[in-house]
Amino acid sequence: MARTESTMLPLGTIAPFFSLQNPLTNSYESLTDIAGELGTVVMFICNHCPFVKHVNHEIVRVANDYRVLGFGFVAISSNDIEAYPEDGPRQMRETAQKYNYSFPYLFDKNQEVAKAYDAACTPDFYLFDSELKLVYRGQLDDSRPGNGIPVNGRDLREALDNIFNNRPQNKIQKPSLGCGIKWKP
């Protein structure tokens, strides 16, 4: 497993706009469509990465717990599907159904969205406030495949709770660690 850390986009960055295809519905969905009243979580994931597989169930739990509170969630796959066909739209649809994603799982065919977000790895998490300003970026929690730490979404949950309870964000934000995004040549 290649281990790549997230690049930690500067806090305060305005969420780059996107409109991407949802392989489950064959429709296009935009940042505006998925933005939540209180905040929006943008996740870069893929189907094949062991780091994503390790946290997939918790990603679903976090989204289910916080969507009802006014947060929007979206997952985006940006990998080169010629080199990694298991990350293609058909497999994305299967993954979304298998894990019962309650959020759109969008395909970044040209990798432009991943570049705009300076995404580096899967999984990579970004939390924007109600004005779409970045307030948290980094890891879901300290769990990694094989390290024995339970997956609980602690870091992202704390950041969501801070918005919900109108508290300042933790100044210490740890980068995510996962598979590097598979860039096209």
From TrEMBL:
SUPFAM superfamilies: Thioredoxin-like. It holds the Pfam family AhpC-TSA. InterPro entries: AhpC/TSA, PRX-like1, Thioredoxin-like_sf, Thioredoxin_domain. Residues 9-165 form the Thioredoxin domain. Gene3D superfamilies: Glutaredoxin. It comes from the Bacteria. PANTHER family: OS07G0260300 PROTEIN (PTHR43640), THIOREDOXIN-DEPENDENT PEROXIREDOXIN (PTHR43640:SF1). This is Thioredoxin family protein.
